[in-house]
Every structure is written in C-alpha cells, then in structure tokens.
What does this fold into?
Amino acid sequence: MIKRLAAALLFALPLAGEPALADKVQETPLFQACMDHVDFGALKNSQWLACYKEELGRQDKALNAEYRALQGRIPPEAKEPLIKAQRAWIAAREAWCRLEQDLPNAPGGEVNYQACLLEQTLTQINKLKDVF
It folds into this structure.
C-alpha cells in the first residue's frame, strides 16, 4: 500500500483522476497581468522571465502549503513514502526543465526553464490536492 501511494504521488496519480477544471490551480491574475504588460518592442524575454519568476515564487508557496496539508491528511505510515516521492518529483522536475532550457524552442533558455518549472509546479499542486 505504501509503495503504491508513493508511486501514485510521483506518477500522475492515475487512480485518482483529474480534478474538475474549476478546482484546478492555475496561474494567478497577477501573472496574467504581468504577461499582458510585456512590451514586445523591448527586451520581451527578460520581461517574460520576470513574470515567470514572480509567479513561480507564489506557486512554490502554494505547493509547500498543499504538501503540508497532505501530510496532515495521509496515514502516518504514508508520510515517509510521501517525502521520498516529493523529493523524486523535485529531481525529475529539475532534470526535465533543464532539458527544456537546452532545447532550441522559442523563446529559449532561462524563459523556457522558468515556464517549465511553473507548469510542472502547477501540475504537482493539483496532484497533491487530489490525494485523499
């Protein structure tokens, strides 16, 4: 049971299903406003990067809060597997996003890396919310 829970937490929780769209955590209105104000005539990549970094900071706090909440919802014997699964997810997220940073896709580089981190973090928040 414990190994199954850890695997589910790490690999998209195939048995839990997707939360309803209205319940899914998404980018904040602050992020949308930041992206809406990017000046395409001047250093747009650095502006996008700033928007992604700010939003990632907000969502990282949400991820940590959801992780702590999940620790309170699961049985005591599942806590160590949860810790291992979350650590494995962090390593996998980092490796995947470094790959996206290195791929020749626009806008490229650090913007791709931060965008990937944000996308992966939002997905993980929703996974954690959907456990128990």
Q: What stands out?
A: Helices lie at 2-10, 29-36, 44-73, 79-102, 109-129.
